[in-house]
Design goal:
The protein is mainly alpha-helical. It has helices at residues 3-16, 39-53, 59-63, 68-85. It has one domain (3-17, 26-85): ACP-like (Non-ribosomal Peptide Synthetase Peptidyl Carrier Protein, Chain A, Orthogonal Bundle). Helix 1 (3-16) packs across helix 2 (39-53) and helix 1 (3-16) packs across helix 4 (68-85). The chain is globular.
Length: 86
């Protein structure tokens, strides 16, 4: 899966947790400041990403996700790990 495709899916998943449209989500957006996430929203967003991409994100990894770009980077990393295992 290409990074642009990953970005679009991540943006869509994060937009579902906020009042922002997927096309308005930018890589540099902060989950808290730009998307209005509180800690519960962030947990739900991580669960949504896990479900969407069929990956597992640890609590330690989830805590480091504070921007859309970091979410995309982590998902891409997890997908690469998953591809290498198969």
């Amino acid at each position: 899966m290409e990074n642009q495709e990953v970005f679009q899916k991540v943006a869509g998943a994060l937009a579902n947790q906020s009042d922002v449209k997927p096309e308005d989500v930018k890589p540099e957006h902060s989950l808290k400041d730009d998307l209005g996430f509180d800690s519960l929203d962030a947990v739900e967003a991580v669960m949504g990403l896990e479900e969407e991409f069929e990956i597992t994100i640890s609590d330690e990894e989830a805590e480091k996700i504070d921007t859309v770009a970091k979410a995309v980077e982590l998902v891409a990393e997890k997908l690469a790990e998953k591809a290498n295992k198969s």
